[in-house]
What does this fold into?
Amino acid sequence: MTSSDTPVIYILDTAVFIKNASSWFHDKMCITTYSVYEELITMPAKMEFEKMQLQGMELYSPKQKYKEEIKKRYSYLKLSETDIELLAIALELKEKGKKIIMVTDDYSIQDVCKKENIPFMSVERGTITKSLEWKKICPSCKKEITQDICEVCGSKSIWISK
Ligand SMILES: [Zn+2]
It folds into this structure.
């Protein structure tokens, strides 16, 4: 499989629904968590969320292991439970070898994304049309590889943006 064949999964934070940006994601693979819905206060935002759900947006509860990992690594940041869940989803999908983009306006989440090599887009700054180039790397050797499994150490490759 080449990098262009692998679909990107967009992880959607509250900003997407609050700022009425979800139409851009209608034909994309999207995932979020129920606690994002719980943070939505206005009716239009809730309706955006429900519409996206009908169109196939997946609701996912990340595994405890990944939430613990985020809490441990970033205890110095003020991350809400929702932030932690979204980042845990990102970690989990990345480890499964998925191509992901976090969509958020939250600076703490963006900070973690930078440190974890998770590509992100901001709704506010309108960079969601930016196309990313991807490469496969071995998370242990930190080298670009072409296979799914690293020949040197046997780790599963992950996608990162160049
Ligand atoms: Zn390796």
Remarks:
- The mean pLDDT is 88.
- The chain has two domains: 8-130, 132-162.
- Residues 138, 140-141, 150, 152-153, 155 surround zinc ion (CB under 6 Å).
- DSSP finds six helices and seven strands in the chain.
